[in-house]
Amino acid sequence: MQFLEMEMRRLLMLVTAVCAVGAGLFYWVMKAELLDESALANAGIVLLPSPHVLPDARLATVDGQAFDSKFFAGKWTLVLFGYTFCPDICPTALSELRQVYLALPPDARKLMGVTMVSVDPHRDTPERTQQYVSFFDPSFTGMTGNLAAVQQASNDIGLPFVPGDIDQPDYTVVHTGNLALIDPTGRQVGFVRGPLRVKELIRILPGLFAQSVSE
């Protein structure tokens, strides 16, 4: 009887170990699947061959936070160059980003930041920019600076824009709906193509964030 109990315990331990290994393998297979090139492409994510260290920019939030590595520390940030009078791209992108943000698991949500840099500093003050992005979600951040500083930052990131003619009433600014993807150390690692693929981003971002934490 005692021998039988010992054998049963050994069998139980073996089954438990196999299940644990199987679960671990399943996790890493799923993780690899989430982060392979085809999955990234399906989500509209384009990674740079190597991370790009961004120079500090003369941009600031309404409370004086600067566009530098300290601002990006600890989070993955999606950066949109837009403006509050934008008729289509910006409200669409920010609405989609809100959908993604709210649908993420809590741990992943803590690692995601959204920042809009205004490409229309003539009309967009830091206060107005922050008020605008907060309408979509209170966690979103708005930034701006003088036109030269905004252009320098957008060119450094690879998302240039064409300034509007401020002498014309109701002028518009030509800009892209693509986003910059900044890692928690303040390096640009890629782009997210617009219009956003909400479902695919919800699926892949937790894996991307988790990998960055483990590394």
Automatic annotation (TrEMBL):
Disulfide feature: C86-C90
Domain Thioredoxin intervals: 48-210
Keyword field contains Cell membrane: no
Similarity field: Belongs to the SCO1/2 family.
Keywords: Copper, Disulfide bond, Membrane, Metal-binding, Transmembrane, Transmembrane helix
Name of protein: SCO family protein
Domain of life: Bacteria
A Pfam family annotated for this UniProt entry: SCO1-SenC
Binding site for Cu cation: C86, C90, H175
Bilayer-crossing regions: 12-30
GO terms, molecular function: metal ion binding
PROSITE patterns associated with the record: THIOREDOXIN_2 (PS51352)
InterPro entries linked to this entry: SCO1/SenC, Thioredoxin-like_sf, Thioredoxin_domain
